[in-house]
Amino acid sequence: MTRFAKGVANLRSSQIRDLMSLATRPGIISFAGGMPGNDLFPLQELDTIYNNLTEKEKQVAMQYGPTCGLPSLLESLAAFLEKKGLKVGDNRLMITTGSLQAINILAHAFVDEGDDIIVENPSFIGAISAFKSYQANIISVPLKSDGIDIEALRQQLDSMPRKPKFLYITPSFHNPAGIVYSKENRKALIELMEGRDIPVIEDDAYSDLYFYEEDKEQLKTIQSMERKDLDVCFTGSFSKIIGPGLRLGWMLVPQHIYEKCELIKQSIDACSPSFTQVIADKFLRTDVIHSYLERVREEYKKRGLAMIECLKANLPSYVTFVEPRGGFYIWLQLPEGTDATEILKKAIDKGVVFVSGVTFDPHETRKNAIRVSYCNTAVDVIQKGIPVVCEAIKEVCGQ
Questions:
Q1: pLDDT for residue 174 is more than 90
Q2: 176: cis peptide before it, omega within 30°?
């Protein structure tokens, strides 16, 4: 019998991956994937960038690059992040093959078999899978509408016989919950974590996709906030702000953590794609990024508000959700005891797919939630598909 490593024994394909093949069927309306809309990609801008590359730049694009990333992209990305207030100068920046690779590298750096780590519940399925692959003992703390439950986190930390290796959080436009940590919640989290010698991994793929300018101050990253004796490992991605096909993300981490992470990345893929690094660098340097983000923010806002309106008009009163102010997702909370997979089956029969909440529970027990995404679906399709989801909910849970 083939003998596999312990680290892969408990891995399972996520419901999202399983649903993606279904979502490509003709006539299916998908609220499942957390991917940008194909119609929103900056194709003309990318064509212009490539067509204006010099021969030398194209040669660089086709060659291996440094493990940490091309110097030109590190420079332009550092400037981009500094404008957002991140403390780049006090840390080291590394380009990764998507932000999930950054999360994997950090897990590899910190976790031995059986080590405790803390995550939010619900949490990003990609991170959960990564942590399980390193055989971490995952402990979860619930989310509230304004961020992680600080008191529950305090009680968890104080009751643990050994320190967790890290805390993993997604404070801005959370995947899947769609919430934003309030400024007060972020400050309280920093105060709680200071001096405990527990790094915080701050995953930030969505903070540039806000709907309202007045929210920018609340989206200030934990990495950029004043703190004492607290290591913050910040991860981000070009996937949501240019396109996932670039396969580029980054980590911004303290020097002593960076040194281990660079060695780990060398053993994984040597370097991230030089070709797309050259493109991303030009995208940042020509300032196309800002005009493009303004354009897609407006479209995601239209789609998000359309979904909110449809949900309010069609959902039964016992289903609740926090209205998103950016990002990609809405998290529907159903009555206790509801199994959202039963609702999903009925919705699929009617031609609509979404993701049931158990997918995002690290312990795979919470079944009474649904994630619907509006990012990859036009307004008229949202208006057609959301009533179907609501009808399926009523068929399972009652009027």
A1: yes
A2: yes
Token pair in block for residue 373: 């995404």
Residue 168 contacts by C-beta under 8 Å, 6 or more apart in sequence? 103, 117, 118, 119, 120, 123, 127, 131, 200, 201, 203
Is the pTM of the predicted complex or chain greater than 0.90? yes
CA dist 303 to 29, 211, 241, 379, 384, Å?
A: 14, 11, 16, 5, 13
Other beta carbons within 10 angstroms of residue 115's beta carbon come to 18
- Please check whether residue 222 is in contact with residue 232, taking contact to mean a CB–CB distance below 8 angstroms: yes
pLDDT, average across residues 272-290: 95
| Per-residue pLDDT tens digits for 347-374 | 999 999 999 999 999 999 999 999 999 9
In this structure, what is the dihedral angle of CA atoms 380, 383, 385, 391, given to the nearest 10 degrees? -160
The overall average pLDDT reported for the chain is 94
Confidence check: pLDDT of 11 > 80 = no
Kindly state the percentage of the chain with pLDDT values over 70.
96
Give the angle 128-224-244 at the CA atoms, nearest 5°: 45
Q: What is the pLDDT averaged over residues 307-320?
A: 97
User: Over the range 168-177, which residues count as b (16 or more CB within 10 Å of their CB) and which as e?
Assistant: bbbbbbbbbb
Biggest alpha carbon–alpha carbon distance for the chain = 65
Residue 299: strand pairing partners: none
Q: Which residues pair with 93 in a beta bridge?
A: 252
Could you tell me if 368 and 340 are in contact, meaning their C-beta atoms sit under 8 angstroms apart? yes
